[in-house]
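Alpha carbonic anhydrase 4, variant 2, pasting as requested.
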Amino acid sequence: MSVLVGLPDGRVRTFCKGASEIVLKMCDKIIDNNGTTVDLPQEKAKIVNDTIDGFANEALRTLCLAVKDIDETQGENNIPETGYTLIAIVEIKDPVRPGIKEVVQKCLAAGISVRMVTGDNINTAKAIARECGILTEGGIAIEGPEFRNLSPEQMKDIIPRIQVMARSLPLDK
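Structure tokens follow.
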């Protein structure tokens, strides 16, 4: 999600918030520990991405916040997709609700297939699904875009084993 903001001096700034791995790819700069804007080379971006993955593996949802000053002539309908400065990674703990693990176990014991379909990052989704007892040994976790690119034959083969679908769209459900 991005928004354009007119500044008092007439400049226009766009603020962007969203899925960490997506927003990070839009950034070519970062705010360092001293508050200075510096380049974000591949090796530093990898460190940031590894940090995001670490949070996700602990079942934490993450968002990146980024900013970019833009040319006023770009107009309101042309929010840029590159050239942002990464200003923060926010981690959010959304604990599994009490009783969910037990409900999942009852469903499984009754022969009901339980699947998690979420917009979350794949690593966050897998961590939460393991915590709830949804993702088991041999179960498949897949991202929505990867699933949508499968042929009908591949889908037919994989669907019975899918336990988690991350970065999904309503159509994937």
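Note for the archive: The chain has two domains: 2-93, 100-172.
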